[in-house]
Amino acid sequence: MEMNAWLYAALYSCFVTLITLFIGLYQSPKLKKRGEGRKRPSPTDLFLVLLFSLLGGWIFLIYCFIEDLNYIPYEPPSPFRVATEDLIEQVSIESVEAQSFIRDPLGAVPSLPFGHLNHAWETFKEKALPNNELWSFKGGWVDEFEETYSLEGYVLVAEDGPGDFFFTP
Amino acid sequence: MTAQYPEKITYNDLPARLCSQPLDSYFDFTDEPWPFERSRNTALWRGYIGTWELIADRLYLVNIDALSSEGKEVFPLDSLFPGFPNRVFAHWYSGTLRICKGKQVEYVHAGFGSTYEDEYFLSVEQGVIIKTLVEHPSVIVKPKMQLTQWSNLLWK
Fold it and tell me: Which of A108, A117, A167 sits opposite B84 (nearest CB)?
């Protein structure tokens, strides 16, 4: 519960107090004129009504406070990154491209490395720096629904470890 | 969540419902922005309906209908796959296709949760079908209905 919720709770308690006092003290003018006004509640009655009204509200607030202590804020899963232990073997761009052509009897895929994913592969290659090594990888990732995915592809490895990667189907 | 319109597919030379979204995984491999308008229709959160074909155990995308401010319109295939206006081999897709035929057995107001008389589960590896499993949910649902009938008799 945010701190401003406590403020609202305090305002609510004041509102309850005012309503209780109004109910306890107000008498219809018409009834009063006819002598049928109800008996004015005693201070004890008013106090008991007020006490139970406020107590009920505060018991709820105490419950909320205890729930807040156990509250675990949602943390989205961290994005996938290739770990060093996911690396399989060092490869070359030429060898990767040589075995990445997709064949289709109906010709519904371009004769380019990785077929319809060629532009993604070209974008990945542009990120390579002269001192980068190209490695194949296979790793796992768990999403926010705790579903595990096995992901593989190629990754650019620099001195500080694996960096940009390209997934393969 | 509202029940979603299925994709379209031709299976065994007949039109059927495809309760899977193979095109979605294409965007997992690329950095391309999502080209369809989402949220225009709560029964079509993805913003498009793809039409697919299975030819010689291979999965092909042949058409995309997308939602726009003017309603449904054909989304040119070659705007996503340059040079391929008529048919695209879905080699990026590996997973399970769920094809549904026949009458609806049970309506579920969420995603592709509804069940149909005949359901086919096709395991796909890089666009190629490797295994098919057939289920008939109407057979599974019937025993539950029989239990209800028995309890009604007991109360009588």
Answer: A108
Name, in order, each residue with C-beta under 8 angstroms of A123's C-beta and a sequence gap of 6 or more: B31
Nearest 10 degrees: Cα torsion B130, B134, B137, B139: -160
d(CA B13, CA B53) in angstroms, rounded, equals: 9
Look at B89 and A109 and tell me if their CB atoms are within 8 Å. yes
**What residues 52-111 of chain A have any CB closer than 8 A to a CB of chain B?**
102, 104-106, 108-110
All residues at 6 or more sequence positions from B79 whose CB lies less than 8 Å from its CB, including other chains:
B35
Distance to chain A for B58, nearest Cα, Å? 9
The closest CB to that of A117, out of B29, B58, B83, belongs to B29
Query: Where does residue B136 rank: exposed (0-12), middle (13-18), buried (19+ CB within 10 A)?
Result: middle
Spans in chain A with pLDDT lower than 50 = 1
Q: Is the separation of the CB atoms in B23 and B95 below 8 Å?
A: no
- In 3-state terms, chain A is what percent helix, strand and coil (to 5)? 45, 20, 35
pLDDT at A90: 95
For B14, residues 6+ apart whose C-beta sits below 8 A from its C-beta are B101
**H helical segments located in chain A:** 3-25, 29-33, 43-69, 93-98, 118-126
**Residue with the two structure tokens 């997934």:** A167
Report ipTM (2 d.p.).
0.79
Cβ atoms of A169 and A158 closer than 8 Å: no
Whole-number pLDDT of residue B109:
82
Around Cβ A76, how many Cβ atoms within 10 Å?
7
